[in-house]
Amino acid sequence: MTDAKTHRCPNCGGFLTFNPNDQKFHCPYCLSIFTEAEIASFVKANPEIAEQTDTENTIKRDATQQVDLYRCSSCGAEIYTSATTAATFCYYCHNPVVLVDRLSGEFAPEQLIPFQMDQKEAQEAFKNWIKHKHYVNKNFYNQDQIEKLSGVYFPFWYIQSEGDSEFSAKAREIRIWRVGEIEYTETKEYEVHRKNYLKFYHLLKSGLTKNIKQKMFENVEPFDFKALVDFKTPYLAGFQAEKRDIEYQAISESINDELEGYGEELVHAQVNTDYQSISNSHLNFNDKVSPSYLLLPLWVLTYHHNDKVYYFAINGQTGKISGILPINQFKLILHALFIFSLVLVIGLIVGYLV
Fold it and tell me: Are residues 194 and 273 in the same domain?
């Protein structure tokens, strides 16, 4: 079982939510506003009040439906969550809840980037983006659908690497010139050795299995990692969050291969500027990899149509947009037929006049 935690207002005891616009914590009841430092100070002095842990309504697993269930401490409604849900809110009274055990111990993120866009800004960005897409199924962007746009912190592995590389290869340089009617060719061959110190920054890998096939998460990069802050659960209040289900050990080998590939490309690019051809190359890369577990902000929208799932995502920090759209085939065909008919009529008229 997992304890459910709600962050409470120091003034009235109502629940707090994080506001991306001013990067502060707001109480919707007494309208108080607090900084992160003020919340931390209050939590330290009054932990039993500031971070109310509902031990009576802990998360319980419903084995028949493969979901977890908890009862909202505010209104008593039953809320279902998936096994990877780490923060959510009651769909009836909007009481925000953090599922403590899923973000503590080995599953505690080291840092996160707080949301910079609120829901209203995300909805406007979606409307501005979709109005240029003329053949999208209308149900994808009706008002009911737009209101389902959700702010979610997704888990990522953030990798930085540095190390020494040693490169060896055979290189060739060819020079051709003419003297009168005679053409001369000079070929020089070299044994090439290079030693480099390589550093790689900001490599991101999804920490959630169900996001692996969703390329849109790659398409909303990059993030500005200067905005990283130490992880604290109040930042999740009012948003949803997922915990990782991919451990670093499971992807470490593929990451090492990817880093070696980047290293080889860099060294090859350097050597190819000096010689005309390279062969029998070999790279030894002794790297030191430093993985970190982060939560990153995304506004997401999903749409089910004809047994397919379509996705839309906005980078919750930069506003960069990506989406996989459901095309209205009937509208597209109708438009194509109209253009074809119009061209045909114009062609017949021109032909008749000529």
Answer: yes
203 part of a folded domain: yes
CB atoms within 10 A of CB 260: 18
Pick from 230, 236, 238: which is nearest to 27 by CA?
238
Q: What type of residue is 229?
A: V
> Tokens at residue 337, please?
């037929």
Please give the sequence-ordered ranges of beta strands (E in DSSP) within the chain, or none if there are none.
Answer: 2-7, 17-19, 24-26, 33-34, 51-62, 67-71, 78-81, 85-89, 96-99, 111-112, 150-179, 182-206, 229-230, 240-242, 277-305, 308-315, 321-323
Residues 50 and 168 in one domain: no
Question: Is residue 20 predicted with pLDDT exceeding 90?
Answer: yes
Decide if 144 is inside a domain.
no
Helix (H) or strand (E) holding 255: helix 248-272
Number of Cβ atoms within 10 Å of the Cβ of 66: 9
Number of neighbouring beta carbons within 10 Å of residue 90: 21
Gap between the Cα atoms of 155 and 244, Å rounded: 5
- CA torsion, points 55, 57, 63, 66, in degrees to nearest 10? -100
Tokens of 260: 């070696």
Task: State what percent of residues in the chain have pLDDT above 70.
Answer: 75
Q: Is 312 a domain residue? A: no
Question: Do 170 and 69 have their domain in common?
Answer: no
Domain residue limits at 6 = 1-108
Greater pLDDT, 51 or 56 = 51
97 and 184 housed in the same domain: no
Is the residue at 182 inside a domain?
A: yes
Last residue of a domain, one of 254, 275, 294: 294
